[in-house]
Amino acid sequence: MKMRKPCKGRLVNVVLKNAMFWNGKSFEHQSEVRLNACETSETVEFDCNGALVMPALFGLGLDFMEPLRDDVYTFADGFEAMRKGGFYGGLYESAANPIDDADKYTAMVNRFKSEERGEEAFDIKFLGAYSKGFGTDSLAEMVELAEAGVAGFGDGNGVIPHSRFLRLAMEYGKMTGKRFFFQPMDKTLRHSGCVHEGAYSDMLGMKGIPRIAETIAAYTVLETARFLQVPVHFKQVTCGETLELVRNARKNGIDVTCDVNLYHLLLDDSCLETLDSAYHILPPIRSAADREALWQGVVDGTVNAISVNHTPVLRQDTVVNFEDSVPGALSLEVALPAIWNKLVASVGEARAIELLSTAPARLAGAESAGESVVVLAPEKTHKVLESDFAGHVCNSPLTGKELPSSILASYINGVWTELN
Amino acid sequence: MGALQIKHLFGLQGVSKQDIRTILDNAKQFREILERPVKKVPSLRGMTVVNLFFENSTRTRTSFELAEKRLSADTVNFASSNSSVKKGETLVDTLRNIESMKIDIVVVRHKGTGVPKFLAEHSNAIIVNAGDGAHEHPTQALLDMLTIEEKLGTLEGKNVTIIGDIRHSRVARSNLWGMSTMGAHVTLCGPSTLVPRNTDLMNHVTWEPDVKKAVANADAIIALRLQKERMDDALLPSMREYRNTFGITEELLECAKDKVIIMHPGPINRGVELDSDIADGEHSVILDQVTNGVAVRMAVLFLLAGGRNNENA
Q: What is the pLDDT of residues B96-120, one digit of tens each?
């Protein structure tokens, strides 16, 4: 069992020297940049040695799995992961604790605040539930949730409800003007599948989830959205066919946004050959052709944002055979160094920052990063160790892999964190 | 360096022709031993084999147990239905506990794909796959190959047709890898709801939807059992329609070669995938398969345990 390494963050102002600083359009060399995010006399100086200093990131798909096991993963661990990964905020949606009334929203917000010395150290937005308890046929109190401050309404990454309740929920939620966030997945077509239904699942004799489990659900949502004129967002789109539905829907005037999971851009289902449960992610990692289609969607602007979907899983739930493991992956600590270089090569620096920071924040109704920054050495490789992850978990398909770049430090709402 | 390139037997995908040849040649020698009045050899004396079966099994477990006993190994049977697994023990803990009792070889059957490989990553024991989900059942395929060589002389150039529930069949997957490696032409046939939907990684075999065409040039036909326990849905309208469309009947055999051999991994659903008069008829080599199963498993255990030559044969 790895030892817990507490984040060495403290409230300071910083002076970054010898940095390639993002000026809003490009990186330019600055011999010294002062960032004063808090009222303190303490100042840290840091020689960036030519590294990139860019706006901190905003994570779509945070779930610290409370109340999983507070001896294994806590909110504090989640915050440490955010600082290590350079995230100043995120859109939080608890699969375990649906926020289906205003009291639960307030309680959740207070829990986050209590973990951070009573201050708003991160810009966390919350998705409310559109059904009571997720997966029921009872409407959540969406009007009061909207007034309380939820960013939108979600499903806890569950399957799409039956069409009649979907219509009812969106019809009622329309009063709030909030966006509905869906992970498009048809329950019956998903069935007991745990991997992408494709050549590898059939070769290995594993039950697959076909693309049409996603596209049929997405089409149902889009038709309902068109009928009711309700804005919708698709979380973790996995295939080109769904992106094509999004493109066509936009042409027809439907307000639809979507994101793609980091790992769906980095991996394809050939990883299943290893039978390593670290690759057990839902929705599943699809084929190489799907991955290329997702990249095309990133390049042509169909994809609004790249999501992280940070999901800690208990170690004992991963040290089993693939099909019996609990799906989910950590990503906050590794997202930026894993994808930055490839993303920049595909879409350029400005769009890369847009996809990782400003666009996800906008989708969640959050402010921009402001003075919060992350320092990235794009050419410094880094081998991912179990100890890189906060908490007593390490469920990432990138554990043991070498990342093409490294985070050197982050400065998140006044807290400076240096990484080795 | 052992007698085989592989250290464990997870499946036949990727296993070399040389290793399969060595196993089959050793199995032939053990097959001869099984015909002797005294069928026991001391090859694994002092070694302990545990049969770790998380799924129900009668013939495979019995066959392994018999193979182990005839090699003079000490054997322990572990069935999940009456074990600590029922009390919540994890797979790894179960294995480590058993391993602590100083076992040498683990024969494992489990519903999950890749469990044998997973166990090998967490154990020092030699792992033999006795069936993992719908993935592989390598010793069944090896005994099928042994039977074909015994009856037809060689696998090289022979046409082997596998009919039935390919999608859920670990036997079919092991056979399509193993037999192809040994030079046989494998044709797979079954109803569209029972064949894999994506065959890109298995395109070295022939997929033939027409059962009459599938059997026309076959030297051996393997009828697969309908794996109702692995079917989540109603994948077939009726057993009657399946039998009339894909069952091995006298009528269907009229489309096949005169000397075609009929095989089945068992247990047979008589009157569904195989008519009784075919199962018991002149073309059937099903009971030979059962006998060869013991010989093949003896060979696998012997060779994985390090045997270089079968001096006892």
A: 888 888 899 999 999 999 999 999 9
